[in-house]
């Protein structure tokens, strides 16, 4: 009987010792299974993102060089203000308008902090960045007749470079009109 009692005590001791040893290991195994599942889910998301990226790269690669050139002219890298101003002057000349003045980022642009116009005489700030796309405000002053100005605006609208026209004002001086235009163009 003592033998059976010793065997039962050893079995119970082994079970208790195994429980204390196996319980943390079992918890660790469950934790590793959860982490493995999470990693598999993340890997699946990465695979989906890689497929989306590859599809976009394929889509970009199917664009012709002509289309890429048009996109670059619509939203160029860097301000390329000189090219833009030359094209504006050519448009004005084409329609018989005289370019009086061109102001880049003039004093009437809105301040970056308060959104209020800056008073005259304060120094101009560099163009405001709105993330990856930057605004380049330009004020134009033209002289000519009304029909020529309408044609100029039509061609300005059809220009490949993205141009927003904000304010247009004009006044009559003799037989010709003085036109003032506040525009904004964009670049990367």
Kindly report the average pLDDT value: 82
The name CATH uses for the topology of the largest domain is Alpha-Beta Plaits
Cα shape: rod-shaped
CATH architecture of the largest domain: 2-Layer Sandwich
CATH class of the largest domain: Alpha Beta
pLDDT under 50 segments (min length 5)? 106-126
- Major sheet, described briefly? 5 strands, antiparallel
Q: What count of helical segments does DSSP give?
A: 4
Region (Disordered): 110-133
Transmembrane segments: 6-24
Protein name: Type 4a pilus biogenesis protein PilO
Keywords: Membrane, Transmembrane, Transmembrane helix
What does this molecule look like?
This protein is an alpha+beta fold and 188 residues long. It has helices at 2-62, 65-74, 81-94, 146-158; strands at residues 98-104, 129-130, 133-144, 163-173, 176-187. A hairpin with a 2-residue loop joins strand 4 and strand 5 (176-187). Helix 3 crosses helix 4. Residues 110-133 are annotated as: Disordered. InterPro entries: Transl_elong_EF1B/ribsomal_bS6. Keywords: Membrane, Transmembrane, Transmembrane helix. Residues 119-133 have a biased composition (Low complexity).
């Amino acid at each position: 009987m003592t033998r059976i009692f010793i065997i039962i005590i050893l079995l119970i001791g082994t079970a208790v010792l195994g429980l204390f040893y196996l319980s943390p290991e079992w918890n660790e195994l469950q934790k590793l299974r959860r982490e493995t599942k999470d990693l598999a889910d993340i890997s699946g998301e990465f695979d989906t993102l890689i497929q989306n990226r590859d599809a976009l790269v394929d889509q970009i690669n199917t664009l012709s060089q002509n289309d890429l050139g048009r996109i670059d002219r619509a939203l160029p890298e860097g301000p390329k203000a000189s090219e833009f101003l030359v094209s504006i002057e050519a448009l004005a000349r084409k329609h018989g308008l005289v370019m009086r003045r061109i102001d880049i980022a003039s004093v009437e642009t809105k301040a970056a902090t308060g959104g209020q116009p800056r008073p005259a005489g304060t120094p101009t700030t560099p163009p405001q960045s709105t993330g990856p796309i930057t605004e380049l405000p330009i004020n134009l002053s033209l002289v000519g007749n009304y029909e020529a100005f309408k044609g100029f605006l039509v061609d300005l609208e059809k220009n490949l470079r993205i141009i927003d026209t904000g304010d247009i004002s004009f006044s009559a001086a003799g037989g010709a009109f003085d036109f003032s235009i506040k525009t904004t163009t964009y670049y990367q």
